Amino acid sequence: MTGPRVVVLAGGVGGAKFTLGVREALARRGAPEATVVVNTGDDLWLSGVRLQPDVDSIVYALAGQNDTTRGWGRAGDTERVNAELQAWGAGWPWFTLGDLDLGTHLARTGWLRDGFTPTEVIARMSQRWPLGVDLLPMTDAEVDTWVVLNGGARLHFQEWWTRHRAALTPERFENPGIDRAVPAPGVVETIAAADVVLIAPSNPVVSIGPILAVPGIRDAVRAASAPVVGVSPIIGGRVVRGMADVCLATIGVETSASAVAAHYGARADGGLLDAWLMAEEDADAAAQVEAAGIRAVVRPLWMTDAATTGVMVDAALDAAGV
Description:
Blueprint (H helix, E strand, L loop, with lengths): L5 E5 L1 H18 L5 E4 L5 E3 L2 E3 L1 H11 L16 H8 L11 H15 L4 H8 L8 E4 L8 E4 L4 E3 H7 L6 E5 L12 H7 L2 E4 L8 H6 L3 H7 L4 E4 L2 E2 L2 E2 L4 H7 L6 H8 L10 E5 L6 H6 L3 E5 L6 H15 L2
Parallel strand pairs: 1-2, 1-9, 2-5, 9-10, 10-13, 13-14
Antiparallel strand pairs: 3-4, 6-7, 6-8, 11-12
Helix pairs in contact: 1-2, 1-13, 7-9
């Protein structure tokens, strides 16, 4: 197949929707499958099994198995095992494990216990359904995200996000051990060989942030010969879903398309971006993005379905000149 070699940095439900659009756009162009580097910072151990929420969101979406109503988990899932866990006082009563979803976690945990790396586990998972992209974890190390609250209390990110809905004021986010982590096999090499690097409209702090915090990945993106195009997760001055605004405020970034672009920074000034897709609702901030040394491209950014998202990805590829 001909066409651009595309690398995507992604996480969360927004990353899953964006990846569907990437697959759609590249299929129309007759291009090779994209490589998606997935955030594993919100992974966790629960009831003896290893969960990878962002990996699973992307796998289920690409496989057409995701629950589009809830926005997470498998479509048509049941919760019989989860009810039994709660009856035993095991797990988290506010963190639901569907029966089909639990099958994924059990398979993953078994493979990990057998000595397979997360990279190898994701490769095995990718064989079940025709996903149409190559998936790589950001690292094979366990670097779960923890939230340090004002006062010093620490919660796993999933407890802060899912149980408390980000209502507890965070002081900072941490990924213990990430300074000693290394990129998963193939991540740096794939970025170096790419024709374009896309930063999905995922949470900049807890989805994209951990990927870039793995030593070597930010430098690889910055040094890439390919253009780097980011897509704003902010539309009309608001986050599209979730509580990314709380995360941004924690690191001192305003919830605006121009502020998130500045957070990533222009490659000409040591940052990451060459171009930034921003919503029509934020067009009046395009001049601020341009003033920061980043080319602003104003387009519709609502990811209503794969075809619409594919058109958005086309705009990102056009902005990269590929």
